[in-house]
Amino acid sequence: MNRYKVTSSEKLIIITAVLPALLQGNYTPTDSDGTCQVALYIEAGRVSQIRQLCTGMNFSAPQGWQVLELPVQWILIPAFVDCHVHLALDGVTGFKGLTGPVADQIIETRLRQVVDSGIMALRDGSDRFKTGLQARYLSRKLSAETIMPAVIAPGAAIFRKGFYGANLGGEGVTNFQEVENRLLQLQKEGADQVKVVLSGLVNFSYAESTGPPHFSLGEMQAIVARSRKYGLAVMVHANSDLAVRLAVQAGVHTVEHGFFLSKETLQLMAEKGVAWVPTVVPVAAALDLYQGSSREEKAIKKIIEKQLNMIRLARELGVTIGLGTDAGAPGVDWKNGYRQEMKLFAQAGLSVPDILTIASENGARVLGLNREMGKIAAGKKPCWLCLEKNILSGVENFNEPAGIFFSFPECSTGKTTP
What we know:
Order of helices and strands: EEEEEEEHEHEHHEEEHEHEHEHHHHEE
Helix content: 25-40%
Distance between the termini: 33 Å
Structural class: alpha/beta
Largest sheet: 4 strands, mixed
Radius of gyration: 21 Å
Shape: globular
CATH class of the largest domain: Alpha Beta
Number of domains: 2
CATH architecture of the largest domain: Alpha-Beta Barrel
């Protein structure tokens, strides 16, 4: 893979094919594959200008600028964003194998693997050892020497004591004063967002969620309101239509997983501007774990079918969808999980441009990095991938990027911006 780390001192012009949908502004497709040719001017580490080029046009660069013309079989797109991972987990044993803090060397290996997959930013889904915060520090440190993904970290999750969430947050809360103390601690630690656990896990035996929501609407509204005072967006683990609807009504930033949704709840998500990260691939991976078990296998297939139908409907209703893999969960490794989730989105009926937009622009918005990356636009940093053009005929053709252009993005709050 070709890797190009963009510095703030160079003046670079990249001539390449792009999809107009991935550019900010009005650009017209000129090639039969739906792409157009552009010249991207980069100076001071950011895009300063974008010019669409006419077919057969002889390009002349200003004096002092370096010109790089990409191969005709490549397309340039914004880098991928994984909205939900667990950097503490190994992709095999899941939380059962997490018995203590994770070594820096292991985290570094996982970060390098996601870069190889084209992921230039990710959001950790929390664990009791606060591995996301550790990974964020490590990523920023290593980015001075090599290409590392930006890491958005929520720290330890907030969950109700006695309910699901100990692996995500360590100690549960019993009253709002304990919530307040936890939020204050998260702010001191420099957390980017807040993770709240509102439901249990998906029941693979009966194709349903486990139990009622763990917090009331009033409690969730109070958590969201107080989090905002600390400048923290709220991501919520929620399965069941009731739990998701409650989270949406409370005004959370994103819903994670969100299995068993209804059309009415999706409509409410669209109205309230709440993003959804469906994480289908860990459930699909469970099919291998439960082969030969007729009840579980049947239930899992039903869960996947329902989730894919809801993804298609969410796209039609205008819900902001983020692509998240739950990487590290059993059966979801750090090299192939993203590719598998993209294929599942294609099975849901989404087009390639839709999937690429979800993987980049939507992901950057979910992580609060949309001032820096997510779209090819003047003012943003060059966080881009070079892909083989055959991905335009189907995401199943995607193996790994042919190249990366990267300038490390920064984020202080994890909040969305216009």
